[in-house]
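Record pair follows.
FIRST:
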Amino acid sequence: MLVERFAENPIINPCDVPPSRDDYEVVGAFNPAATIVDDEILLILRVAERPKDKDSNEQLAPILNPGTGQIEHFRVKNNDPNITDIPDSRSFYYKDEMFLTSISHLRIARSTDGIHFKIDPTPAVFPKMPYETFGLEDPRITKIDDLYHITYKVVSDKGICTGLLTTEDFVHFERKGIIFCPENIDVVLFPERIGEKYWALTRPVPRYIGPRGVWVASSPDAVHWGQHQPLVLPREGMFDSGKTGGSCVPIKTDDGWLEIYHGSDTDDKYCLAAVLLDLNDPSKVIARAKMPLMEPEASYELQGFYGNVVFSCGAVEKDDSVLIYYGASDEFTAVAKTTIKDILSTLR
């Protein structure tokens, strides 16, 4: 067994998280970033919530009005001819434009043992900017020197981008703005400068030509990025034949940068796998997974808001183990334990 799922899984359920307002309900607490601060494991959860008063015969999208700072509700009846598609419970299309049925913010959870978490009662970062009107999603935390860099998906009617936050104390957060334009997501920063440059794994989303896979980019300041190159692309006939994307902050080992990434197949089954990158030039792949490190098996991974998904945004090293925190079924947060040796064993 390559990973050990904890008996306490899922360690965070939507019902464990208080909504940001009384008339809302939390439908997902998942895809957490992870880091260690003062011997405490800290997660930044993606918390998805929606209004309680939605009727069964309508679609409802909560949308931030950046001018007032208030969430407004766009409602439309199911029989409205302008509804062009309802692919699943997460979204609907009105006049061929996508709307989300929930809005997400970022929330902090804290633990001393890595399993039992105390969740902050209020959001850490809430939608505020014009590029965040549909919500904040899927953060990753990278500590570089004494500053924590948090990449996160920002969603609006203008598209899905990647934004950057920085913090020293997880109380005050500074927005650095959009660092990758639509649609470039799953951005993960390396935990140190390499060759005097910042490095990032990215995931451009081509619409017409080209696969959806992991690219690499570099920057002089972590804000302005260039030298984009494809790196870990989907492989035909394998578990990652559909899409690939960066998941966890790369772990520095003697053998290279060890990256846990996510890969989906053509049926949208999401697994976790690993790739080893050159220490001095992360644009070079040394070895790549011959098999998944982890795939959906437990009931909370197979069934949920969007089933058949294990999707990680963060892992930490603790007591000679690697704790992988992951979203299960786009609804729950769970954790699994493995080792560097076991991860390396999946490579070829």
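SECOND:
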Amino acid sequence: MQDFRKLEVWAKAHALAVDLYRTTRTFPAEEKFGLTSQMRRAAVSISSNIAEGCGRGGAADMGRFLQISIGSACELECQLLLAADLDLLGAADAERLIKGVNRVRRMLIALRSKVAPCS
């Protein structure tokens, strides 16, 4: 079992989720149970699945949870693009968050290839 808090990718994913929560505070109230909730769940899922993978028994489990994190990162990017297209996010916020999610996704892919290359 590995301490997930020591992984740079977990720290980046956690910071991304915090940034997203703060940024979506300005979203309209009618989006509270819609896009805001979806985006927040996807962002939290990235770091949560890294942590869960670290708590599992082996490389195959870790690889599977990293793959789920990658999927959540893709989901979040899609939602960020939608939020920008709907003018819920300003250009600077959208660019910052999309860059952050892409950085995290690249790190996850790299870690997954090292942890479970045959999965």
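COMMENT: The CA atoms of residues 74 and 105 lie 8 Å apart.
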